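Reviewers of the previous submission asked for a worked example of the structure-prediction workflow described in the proposal, so we include one complete record here. The input consisted solely of the amino acid sequence. No template or homolog information was supplied to the procedure at any stage.
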Amino acid sequence: MTHPHQSYLDEFKISMDKLVPLTPPEIAEEALKIHKELSEDINATEQQIHQALSLIGRKEFPYRKAYNELCAGDEEQRLQQLVMERIDEDVKKKLQDVTRHGVMLDDYVASSMFEDQLNPQERLQIEQAILLAEETLDHQCDERAHKRQAQYEELVDRWTKEATRLQSLINNLRAMGDEDPKWKGEVNSVCDRLEEGWSIVERDPSEEEVKKELEYWNTVLHETEE
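From that input alone, the workflow returned the following C-alpha cells.
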C-alpha cells in the first residue's frame, strides 16, 4: 500500500542523497532511520515528516555551510570548465557566447533562452555534461575539505554557533507568545513557519525575517498591554 504522504517521503529520500559529502555519518544514519520509520508507519502525518526534515536540516546546516564556503569561491568557474570539456565544439561556442557575459550555467539552463537558442540534442548534451561535472566537483571539493581539515572544522564551529544564535532568536519569539494567551497560537504558528527553514528541502531561516517578527510582535504585545 502506498503511503498517503509518499511524495513527501520521496522528497525526504532525495534530500538525504544530497547531503554534503562531509556530513557526519551519524546524521546520515539518523536520517535513514527516521525515513524508514516514517515510511513503515502508514499513520505518519505530513507534519511529522516536515518535522523530521527540519530536524535533519538543522543538524546538517553547519556542515553544509562550511562545505559550501570552502568550495564555492571558484565553483562556477570550475563547473563551466568541466562542462566545456565535455561538449562538442559548436555547442561550446554557443555556450561561451552566453557565459562570457557572466551568466551562470544553472541560471541559463533554467531560462527560456536555453530552449530558444539550442535544439533538443544540444540541450541534452549540456544537461548531461553538467551532471557529470557536478559529480566531479563534489569529489574535488571533498578532497579540498579533507586537505584543509582545520579550516573546515573552524567553519563548522562558526556555523554551528550561527545556527544556535538563529534558533535562540526564534525561541525568544516563541517565549513572547507565552506572555499573552490571546496571541500565543498565532506566535507559535509564526515560529513553526520560521523553523521550517531548517528543513533540508527549504531555504535556511532568515535572520532578517526573524528580527522583523520579533519587532512586530513586540509592538503588538506592548500595544495590547496599553
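The chain has two domains: 6-71+148-225, 75-147. We consider this example representative of the routine output the project will generate in years two and three.
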